[in-house]
Amino acid sequence: MPKVKIPRKSTTVDMTAMCDVAFLLLSFFILATKQKPPEVLTVTPPSSVASQVAPDNAILITLIKDGRTFLMLGDETKKSDILKNINDAKGLGLSPAELAKWNKQQFIGLPLNKIKGSLALAKEIPADKMEGIPTDSTNNEMVDWLRSVTNVYAGGDQKALEKMLLVKGDNNALYPAFKNIKQAFKKNDIYKFRIVTNGQAPPPGSELAKTAAASK
């Protein structure tokens, strides 16, 4: 008896639901991903073979080529407290609304006595127009900033704070400017911080190269 042939029909799959899920996931990752904060100005740091990754919540001091210094408070959970602390300690007289506006700015690059006036402006002053935080030997305001940082983080893990403190200096910046930043750390009893460098491969045959190869 001949076999009954079952007619073949083309298979169709409705991809609508899958496309909806894909676009929902894509939208979620775009909105949830934390973008890298913009740099104050272009900085060319020295090179090293270090491979540690800077934390997202870093407190970053940036020293550019002409000696101007900027500060970025990356820890959003403590940023408003640091700003409030230095406002109270230095008598800046900022209102809650001005503090809230200041908290939205990505970086700090003005003397303390010019903060209130800058917050009254309709537009934020661009980085290349800022004069930087004074760090000279007669008026080192980085001491005040780091004191407010240590006040806010007091009682916590000192080693965890040290890992968050980063200094990114231009390779052509003069050493006295960097020395004044070091003095600001020292006056706040902070003796360890990290230097941001451009990573490069370790020299072939060196111990670092062997360690890197072994870890792969």
In short:
The chain has 216 residues and is an alpha/beta fold. 39% of the residues lie in helices and 10% in strands.
Summarize the structure in words:
It is a single chain. The protein has 216 residues and is an alpha/beta fold. The chain has one domain. It is built from 8 helices and 6 strands, in the order αβββαααααβαββα. The protein has a 4-stranded mixed beta sheet with strand order 3-2-4-5. The radius of gyration is 26 Å and the shape is extended.
Secondary structure elements and their pairing?
Layout: H1 16-32, E1 47-48, E2 59-63, E3 69-73, H2 76-90, H3 96-103, H4 115-119, H5 142-152, H6 158-164, E4 165-169, H7 175-187, E5 194-195, E6 198-199, H8 207-215
Parallel strand pairs: 1-6, 2-4, 4-5
Antiparallel strand pairs: 2-3
Helix pairs in contact: 2-3, 2-5, 5-7
Give the SSE string: HEEEHHHHHEHEEH
Question: How many E strands?
Answer: 6
Strand content: 5-15%
For the sheet with most strands, the description reads: 4 strands, mixed
**What structural class should be given to the helix and strand makeup?**
alpha/beta
Q: Mean pLDDT, as a whole number?
A: 82
For the structure shown, list the relevant keywords.
about 220 residues, alpha/beta, 6 strands, two-stranded parallel sheet, 8 helices, 4-stranded mixed sheet
